[in-house]
Write a structure and sequence with these properties.
Elements lengths: L1 E9 L8 E8 L5 H11 L4 E6 L4 E7 L2 E3 L3 H15 L5 E6 L2 E7 L5 E6 L4 E3 L5 H5 L5 E4 L3 E5 L3 H5 L5 H4 L6 E7 L5 E7 L4 E4 L6 H12 L3 E6 L5 E8 L2 E6 L1 E10 L1
Parallel strand pairs: 2-3, 4-6, 11-12, 13-15
Antiparallel strand pairs: 1-2, 1-18, 3-4, 4-5, 6-7, 7-8, 8-17, 9-10, 10-11, 12-13, 13-14, 15-16, 16-17
Length: 261
């Protein structure tokens, strides 16, 4: 068996930036054990597996720790493979996840977009240990089923954070997102998910499904430039469209190859 595989840097305008993801193309779904073995063999943070069903594509996401229901940057990487490599005649496509659908589109020669339902976060009290884990006093916190969101005053507060990963592991959510108004963008963020094997996520697309509704309400606008201040950095063009969020960004092909099994 030979499988085409691509490594894409998503939400990036150059290689070695944004968030890397492998995209592996399949003729049909093999046993889950093989998908996990491929992911483990590459030691990749995430592999998006694609099956072409003609008018639609099916997608699944695997990490070394198992399968996830959604990975935002890997979805944008898959959009690059579908719309720029496999089916360059298409302007948009639908990717069927196990728990829903994902719309991908080509906005321009540079920008690709994914559209997903919002995952709003509600205001809450700061959980015990959050201040100590982040090393700052947090006065505004929101939460959804997956993540805590800590809102800080300034971009510099976000960029200078050095969280204690062991303490973050003790919280009752998989990740912590820290955000603030941007100096050269509408907002900035960083994402920490040590429970998922990611001390810091270079660019967390799924977090923006909550960040975009929050900042839209706070700033009174629906279009945003968002910067992720991880060491690799990332740039997202975000739009709130009713109960959906469109995340657009650039992708760069780093590697193309063949898996032999």
């Amino acid at each position: 068996m030979k499988l085409d595989v691509f490594q894409i840097d998503a939400f990036a305008n150059r290689v070695f930036a944004g968030n890397p993801a492998l995209v592996c193309c399949l003729a049909d779904w093999p046993d889950d054990g093989l998908l996990q073995a491929i992911t483990t063999e590459h030691n990749a943070p995430v592999v998006a597996f694609l099956v072409d069903r003609g008018q639609r594509f099916e997608i699944r996401y695997f990490t070394p720790l198992g399968e996830l229901g959604l990975v935002g940057h890997a979805s944008l990487a898959a959009a690059h493979v579908v719309l720029r490599i496999l089916r360059p005649d298409l302007l948009e496509a639908t990717l069927d996840r196990r728990s829903g659908t994902l719309k991908v589109s080509r906005l321009s020669d540079a920008l690709l977009a994914i559209t997903l339902p919002v995952l709003p976060a509600r205001g809450c009290e700061a959980p015990a240990g959050l201040d100590d884990a982040l090393g700052v006093a947090v006065t505004e916190v929101h939460v959804n089923q997956n993540q805590y969101f800590a809102v800080l005053a300034r971009e510099s507060d976000v960029s200078s954070l050095a969280p204690d990963m062991d303490m973050l592991m003790k919280l009752d959510r998989d990740g912590v997102i820290v955000t603030a108004p941007g100096e050269h963008s509408q907002f900035v963020s960083r994402a920490f998910a040590p429970k998922e094997g990611l001390p810091e996520d270079p660019v967390c697309g799924s977090a923006h499904l909550a960040l975009v509704p929050y900042w839209s309400a706070r700033l009174g606008r629906t279009e945003h430039l968002a910067l992720q201040l991880s060491p690799r950095g990332g740039e997202l063009h975000c739009s709130l469209r009713g109960d959906e969020v469109r995340l657009a960004g650039r992708c760069v092909l780093y590697m193309q190859g063949t898996i032999h099994i």
